[in-house]
Amino acid sequence: MRCLILAIVLTTAFGDNVFGGKGDPDNGCPVPEIKPADLSTICAEIECAKFTKLDIDGCFEARKYSPAKWVSTEVPDSFMGFRKAFKSLFNYIEGANDQKEKIPMTAPVSNMLVMGSDEQVKVQYMSFLIGEAHRSSTPKPTNKDVMLVEEGEYTLYARAFGYTGFMASKSLIKQEFGILANELKKAGVEVEWSYPITMGYNSPWDSEKRFEVAFAAKAAPSPKPKDLDEICKDIECAKADIHDVKGAPNVQRKDYYEANVIMTEVDVDPTTKKATTAAYNVAFKRLYRYITGNNEKGMNINMTVPVRNKLVIKDNEVAHQFMSFVLPAALTDIPAPKDSKVVQTKEKAYSVYEKAFGGVISEADSETVYSREFKNLWAELTVAGIKPDFQELYTFEYTDPKDNEQRHEVAVLISQNSDIAMEI
Question: Cα–Cα distances in Å, from 190 out to 176, 177, 183, 187?
Answer without folding.
Answer: 18, 15, 11, 9
